[in-house]
Predict the structure.
Amino acid sequence: MLDVSVDGLTIVVLTHELVHAYTQLENDIDNEQWETGAFAAADLKVVEGLAQFIRELCAKARPEARGIEDGHTGQRQADSVTVW
């Protein structure tokens, strides 16, 4: 069981999942998109690493968001179990 607030973890998990969508569907700096098949076949550490990195930037940019620090810590605990 993670020792975090439900609100904080919800904010962080939803941000993390939204980042997955953006990394796959949005154009990068070279105006390229990550094709669905290539995204699905990519190394899990790359896909999750991008989502975790950008989620962490969001958490640092908006620390005043209610519960984000608790959720951020809990998500990192969950990430370390599933990815690394």
